[in-house]
Amino acid sequence: MKAPLVERALHIFLEPAATPRAWSYRVTNPQGVSETGALPSLDALAAVLQRHGALLTGMPWTELPTFGGAPPSPTDGVWSWDERRLLVGVKPDLLELISRDDPRELASP
Q1: For residue 12, which of 46, 56, 44, 42 has the smallest C-alpha distance?
Q2: 44, 72, 82, 89 - which has most CB atoms within 10 Å?
Q3: How far apart (Å, rounded) are the C-alpha atoms in residues 76 and 99?
Q4: E strand residue ranges, the chain
Q5: What is the chain's alpha carbon radius of gyration, rounded to the nearest angstrom?
Q6: Dihedral of the alpha carbons of 100, 101, 103, 104, in degrees to the nearest 10
Q7: In the prediction, which pLDDT does 69 show?
Q8: For position 70, what pLDDT does the model report?
Q9: Cα distances (Å, whole numbers) of residue 59 to 9, 40, 65, 105
Q10: pLDDT along the chain (109 residues), means of 10
């Protein structure tokens, strides 16, 4: 009996075995896991989403990790943030890091 076809997917999750608990990611494809790693910063999250964001599955925008600082107001079009920057855009593979002081209008998803 053939194994079911596993499509390519990006999973972002809170690593249950890590102490302290930490965010991680895993990219899967039909051959199995092709990439995995920690997400310790907004830069790391942005890099993973640039490479694999189109494969993001099983997680709404509002559940991506954040890395410090108060939530921006409003949060429309904001995927994540840290104390100095926002990760913004309309699709998970077309995001950019901008300064919290950037005057541009944020696009809604």
Answers
A1: 56
A2: 89
A3: 16
A4: 9-15, 22-29, 32-38, 78-81, 85-89, 95-99
A5: 15
A6: -20
A7: 93
A8: 93
A9: 11, 18, 11, 25
A10: 65 84 89 87 95 81 87 88 93 89 60
Question: Among 109, 107, 53, 84, which Cα is nearest to 97's?
Answer: 84
Q: Could you tell me the two tokens for 19?
A: 């102490």
Any idea how long the chain is?
109
| Residue found under tokens 């855009």 | 89
CA distances from 44 to 3, 13, 63, 105, 108 (A): 33, 14, 16, 24, 23
Judge whether 25 and 33 are in contact, CB under 8 Å: no
